[in-house]
Amino acid sequence: PAAPIDHQVRDLGLAEAGRHQIRLAEHEMPGLMALRRRHAAERPLQGARITGSLHMTVQTAVLIETLVALGAQVRWSSCNIFSTQDEAAAAVVVGPDGTPDDPCGVPVFAWKGETVDEYWRLLGRAFDWSGEAARAGADWIGPNLILDDGADATAFLHLGARAEQVPEDAGRPERPGVEEQALWAEIDRILADRPGWFTGAAAGIIGTSEETTTGVHRLAHLDRIGRLRWPVIDVNDSVTKSKFDNRYGIRHSLPDGLDRGTDVLIGGKVAFVCGYGDVGKGAAEALRGQGARVIVSEIDPICALQAAMDGFQVARLEDVAGEVDILITATGDRDVVTVPVLLALKDHAIVGNIGHFDNEIDMAALEALPGAERVRIKPQVDEWRLPNGRSVLVLSEGRLLNLGNATGHPSFVMSTSFTNQVLAQMELFAAPDRHAVGVHRLPKTLDELVARLHLDALGVRLTELTSAQADYLDVPVEGPYKPEHYRY
Ligand code: NAI
Name one GO molecular function term (predicted). Predict the structure, then answer.
């Protein structure tokens, strides 16, 4: 009999509920299903061993099963302690044809409500392919591709390999925060148990495909300082990713998170959105759509002017904090909401983050504030009673509220993102030497393909260029239609 599927999830008994949701999601993910139909026979990912670190949701389950349908072996953990949907994780482990007693799906290491120690431990398990090695009768195998969201998985291998190779300059923080302590504890555990593992694993990686803005920033920084070890495909900056998921996805999942977390009426309230990039635009539009009066802050004059032209008041948070009922951060920056701001907000204001990391709201300073008291309302919803007698409601402990308090973006928009992810994995695996070490984007032809794969489901009929028109515009009839610098 085959060895059991390695896993750590909440409860395999949830698999049936998860499978129903996955089945419905497949119907809403035409891009991924089209890739299955187009490529399942030739199995272009046969031989790919993918370690994935991305919110373990129902939509991610459809992504994982698409990678498997294309021939890949996969191990998975979540990229956020609160974002896993336990029924999806269970269904992926059990697989479409397995049972909870006889799972035959994909190894997943994730549950909703991990501690930060568990988080890094579970990522370590997604990187540990020793079970697969034993099954293959090999001494050692590791992953050859990483599918990342926020770059934690890629950074983890880089830090560990550097700790092995240049221990005196490994980047260990002198005064680590809680998160860094947990990260380094896992690295140190592997360094002790499996000497040389990081170097071996890093040497085997063909590339990373990165999902989000913050992850791309981190990887581009590694590249700039000359430390990046392999090519990265920046999926975020496909037009069919950031101009859709970041914007239209948030337009749906931000109000969903606010509703499930608080059920407070948004209409009539003053909402403040920090950052008017792709995510901030979707957030501001959604809040306005619910009848809030929305104020925006920006550091970038172009985005500030855009917000003003879109009809939003643009102000500094500290100048208007006393009017704010709902405060949302969408910057990917740090220390955007500080304790003085929290103290200045209206009583019972709702505070939440939809950027990638929890340092946008200075939670550490709030926790250390003398006289502040946390009252748990329910999981991922805390009332913080402040020393000035007011309260604020903090969602998901300052982490992504749309994934912590709700279930993230809906399937259709995640299909556009994840179709890019699968194409990026295929691109890296098909031609391991095609890309230099650095951060690359998918070609525009593939970006247009992703969009095309989603038109039929919405009943969209494209107008076709005549050859005379194509000549006139100087573009091919079949595309691509825009130059690289076009901004959509
Ligand atoms: P972006 O770069 O398009 O927008 C961020 C904006 O924030 C920029 O315009 C920047 O000028 C502005 N900004 C930076 N520091 C600021 C400050 N101190 N005050 C006010 N504005 C400031 O990035 P994008 O794509 O909108 O992503 C934002 C964050 O959301 C990233 O962390 C990204 O990883 C994350 N994200 C979250 C998603 C979710 O489901 N919650 C989905 C997609 C992205």
Answer: adenosylhomocysteinase activity
Ligand 1 in reach of 397 Cβ (< 6 A): no
Instruction: Tell me, using a 6 A CB cutoff, whether residue 298 lines ligand 1.
Output: yes
Ligand 1 atom nearest residue 213's Cα:
34
Q: What are 108's two structure tokens?
A: 């997943």
Q: CA 140 → CA 129, 145, 332, distances in Å? A: 8, 16, 38
- Scan for tokens 């929305």, then name that residue: 294
Q: pLDDT band for position 2 (50/70/90)?
A: low
Confidence bin at 1 (pLDDT 50/70/90): very low
* Best CA proximity match to 244, nearest among 461, 20, 418: 418
- Taking alpha carbons only, the member of 302, 83, 309 closest to residue 212 is 83
What atom in ligand 1 is closest to the CA of residue 400?
41
Q: Is the CB of 417 under 6 A from ligand 1?
A: no
Q: Is the CB of 398 inside a 6 Å radius of any atom of ligand 1?
A: no
Domains of the chain are 12-237+409-445 (3.40.50.1480), 248-404 (3.40.50.720)
Model-level ipTM above the cut of 0.95: yes
What pLDDT, in 10s, does the model give residues 150-185?
A: 999 999 999 999 999 999 999 999 999 999 999 999
Q: Is the CB of 402 under 6 A from ligand 1?
A: yes
Q: Is 179 left (phi over 0), alpha (psi -120 to 50) or beta?
A: alpha
For residue 162, give every residue at least 6 positions away whose Cβ sits within 8 Å of its Cβ, in sequence order, or none: 169, 170, 171, 227
Mutate to test the pocket of ligand 1, among 212, 297, 336 (most ligand atoms within 8 A of CB): 212
Q: What is the pTM of this model?
A: 0.98
Half-sphere exposure of 324 (CA within 13 A, CB side): 33
Mutate to test the pocket of ligand 1, among 331, 354, 401, 414 (most ligand atoms within 8 A of CB): 331
Q: What is the pLDDT of residues 229-238, one digit of tens each?
A: 999 999 999 9
144 lines ligand 1 (CB under 6 A): no
Q: In what order do the strands lie in the sheet with 207-210?
A: 108-109, 73-77, 49-53, 145-148, 207-210, 232-234, 439-440
Question: Ligand 1: which residue has its CA nearest to atom 30?
Answer: 355
pLDDT tens for each residue of 452-474: 999 999 999 999 999 999 999 99
User: Are the CB atoms for 110 and 14 separated by under 8 Å?
Assistant: no
Tell me how far apart the alpha carbons of residues 329 and 397 are, in angstroms, rounded to a whole number. Answer: 13
Q: Whose CA is nearest to atom 4 of ligand 1?
A: 277
Q: Does the C-beta of 213 come closer than 6 Å to ligand 1? A: yes
Query: Are the C-beta atoms of 158 and 229 separated by less than 8 Å?
Result: yes
Determine contact, residues 123/77, Cβ cutoff 8 Å.
Answer: yes
